[in-house]
Amino acid sequence: MTKRIRKFAVCCMIGSLTIAGGTKTAYAAGQPIAGITPILNDITTNPNITDIDISNIIEPIIEYHDLAIANVSNYVNIRSEANTNSKILGKLYSKGTGTILAQEGDWTKVQSGNVSGYIMSKYLHTGSEVYELVDDVKTKLATVKANVLNVRSKPSTGSSVVTQVPKGLVLEILEEQPDWIKISVGEKTGYVAAAYVDIETGFKQAVSAEEEQTIINLEKKRKESQANKAVSSLRQQIVSYALRFKGNPYVWGGTSLTRGADCSGFTQSVLKKFGIYIPRTSRAQSRGGKRVSMNNIQPGDLIFYRKNGVVNHVAMYIGNGKVIGAASRKEGITIKNYNYRTPYKAVSYIYR
Fold first, then answer.
1. Three-class SS of residue 304?
2. How far apart are CA 112 and CA 89, in angstroms?
3. Check whether domain 139-202 has CATH 3.30.70.2190, yes or no
4. pLDDT one-digit tens code per residue, 305-322
5. Can you point out the beta strands (E) in 136-262?
6. Which of 34, 56, 149, 311 is the most buried (most CB within 10 A)?
7. Would you state the CATH architecture of domain 67-137?
């Protein structure tokens, strides 16, 4: 019966309740709703009822009388002022909660998490509605302990990273496993390692604009890192492919990696294998791509050499100060130090 009383608690404060011997009086600053009415009726009509403890009835009234619950399917903005033109301070997601600070016309000022601001009242459950919903919105929450925590697509360190979250962020728990916790972060879901979060029961809070921006920045860095790894992998694949033809013949005007190629035919054919199309001659190749300094050159980039002020040779950088290229009829496709001739410029055609 206690649980039912909690869920359907009155939405007003009980002024006093005196029970002693055969005299029972009860007063309320408003009309009680279903749940407490039968008890009050018994108290006022049955002289034999004594020692009634109503602390369980009053507790939820005190605890939740200023609670607001998001009445949205996704999220609602929290603003700095009570108008739609003001700055967005954060977001309160579906079933998120806040403490009511004030009412201003059609707006309610709330405090939720690290955010204090205004929400249009029509997007909030308040008053008696809260007592009907409070049990449903209570949830288990995970607070991030690590400086940066990976959110993965599956409960495994081998699965892909969905996003990353910073230390101190509170996440809704959707499912618990021995070593992994399924959580929601914004509009995404994924798994975090249980060892790196603290778990407690409570209410979902707002996400501040700063917290959201931190998540966005982490996601951007993660994607950049993934892109760099992908490029690095591609570069290594290109170099490995080029090295397969070491020792094959030099043929002026040739583009065959097996039967013979000249310097620009070699670089053109190697990059073509990976869907990278560059001009045919060394001079034309030197004019394309993205110029890079010799200090920042990476495997797969091209180094050009001049004679009498004109570009007449190209080779591919393979790392550790070395290049591979079709050097001459005598040497064929061979490996040399990158500065066996004075480099004129370096160019990269690898962008992805």
1. strand
2. 11
3. no
4. 999 999 999 999 999 999
5. 139-144, 148-152, 161-166, 170-176, 180-185, 188-193, 197-202, 207-208, 255-256, 260-261
6. 149
7. Roll (2.30)
